[in-house]
Write a structure and sequence with these properties.
This protein has 174 residues and is mainly beta. The chain contains one helix and nine strands. It starts with a helix and ends in a 23-residue tail after the last strand.
Amino acid sequence: SYVQSGITPLYVHETFTGSMTQSWDGSVRGRLGALLTPSLLAYVTGGAAFGMVSGSFSYNAQFNSYYGPASVTGAASWNDLRLGYTVGGGVELDIGMGLKARLEYRFVDFGHISKDVPLTTTGFYAYTCGKPFGFRQKNNCGLAYFPIEFQGRNAKGFGNYTAGFKPTCEVQDT
């Protein structure tokens, strides 16, 4: 925990909520199988898959900086037609009169989904002193200094904010 490690957390409260749904999908596949009986076919299948994936999320962080209370917020939603692949297998039974019964399992993969969202910083008029850097106070000969012990980077490789983040808008404190 922060208390046990001696680190004072910058963020006081942070929340992330999100959801993703798939409304429909389809595929173009081939099948390769063998007859187990004259009316029962076992097969494997695979091919291209496509589908509509929708999602939304929101982020909110309330914290105290050197310059006073601040917040960082952002939200986004999207609808994407995704392309991927599908593989599976099943059995198909000819029940007569041109009717067939099928039991099938398909695995579908639409790949990794990553979305960017602009964040809005409010509540103070200065930089946040470089949040992606972690440091603890060190004392030496009566002086305190704060050497950087690690630097965080996001999935896109960003994180070199030596001067901190500049607010995107100003909101008066009440």
